[in-house]
Sequence to fold (260 residues):
Amino acid sequence: MVRIIAFANQKGGVGKTTTAINIGASLAAIKKRVLLIDLDPQGNAGTGLGFVRASHRQSAYGVIMGTANITDNILTTAVPNLHLLPSSQALAGADVDLLDMENREYRLRDALKLVADFYDYILLDCPPALGYLTINALTAADSVIVPLQCEFFALEGVQQLTDTIAAIKEKWNPDLEILGVLLTMYERRYNVTRAVDDDVRAVFGDKVFKTVVPRNVRVSEAPSHGKPALFYDFNSTGAQAYLRVATEVVQRTEGGYYGE
Fold:
């Protein structure tokens, strides 16, 4: 059975796309069939996997608008078992284009039915905003991973997201759950990092992943080479952290665990 996971945080710069790419690659490395869907108009997930936007016609935009078949828009990446439904600049206008469409909150969910049986995991990289693209992702998803940078305003942004998730559950997707909160760009030597870590674990308890992702130069360099960290520098601390997070994801999803 496919597990559909959205990566969401309306605050930018928290490592959301990096996390989606690297968890996707790590799941693929442990023989899971993975589809990564880039819903961010910036298209960074595709870039981080080595695709130049102008070099392909495939896009999530037509799939969501109902003008294109999802199976015709999926790209095979250089990572075995990992496929990509890429972004395009047209997604920047999706919120406006969806306004007058029927079932506008369910467009992605309905499109995914055609490919769900081919994958173990479908990962949805959301834009850093709470518009219709993010609503479509949260309506289609079983669960959400919230990447969270350890900084002063971190919990404020997460509270807004949890309120949104609660609204989505009430209106469109009653089964949606937070799979986990992932602490990213972790600098153990900083007092603020340890303080945020303590606060987040006090609020979310077991929903916070045991693994934290350290700030790591190799993880930062990997996208410029079009590779996930695991395939750029397998032994780097960042790559190994994401591999451990992927193991936790499998334990929580395939073991039916969502914390307390």
